[in-house]
Amino acid sequence: QVHLVESGGGLVQAGGSLRLSCAASGRTFSTYVMGWFRQAPGKEREFVAAFNWSGGSTSYSDSVKGRFTVSGDNAKNTVYLQMNSLKTEDTAVYYCAAKTIWSNRYEYWGQGTQVTVSS
To answer: Are 76 and 2 spatial neighbours (Cβ–Cβ below 8 Å)?
Structure first.
């Protein structure tokens, strides 16, 4: 069973930075894609970024491109989301998710971590 645990959320002022972590366990993740999603109050969950363990490729939503960086540490089975130049509109619960490279949907989800950006 895949288990994902996010950490690193908190309160930060606009323009500041945070780094989220997602510790994964239960599988060998070499053929998995790890995604970050977020959900703000009253809004639908949206894609933020993804990291492909198989090759290290990354992808980002247009709203975070150039400000957020996703990366992975193979030895720790941990994926990171470095968030810089944070804006108030980045306030949301951030979720880590995992899917195999052959799947078209994320099958496993963490419990989420709150990120609040104040003005």
So the answer is: no
d(CA 113, CA 20): 8
Tokens of 31: 């053929």
* DSSP per-residue letters across 59-102: EE-TTTTTTEEEEEEGGGTEEEEEE-S--GGG-EEEEEEEEETT
Distances in whole angstroms, Cα of residue 84 to Cα of each of 19, 56, 71, 74, 114? 9, 21, 14, 23, 16
Q: How large is the average pLDDT for residues 8-14?
A: 98
Task: Give, in degrees to the nearest 5, the angle at Cα 74 between 117 and 115.
Answer: 10
| Under 8 Å between Cβ of 22 and 6 | yes
C-beta separation of 85 from 15 below 8 A? yes
Span 51-60, pLDDT tens digits: 999 999 999 9
Pairing of the two strands 46-52 and 32-39: antiparallel
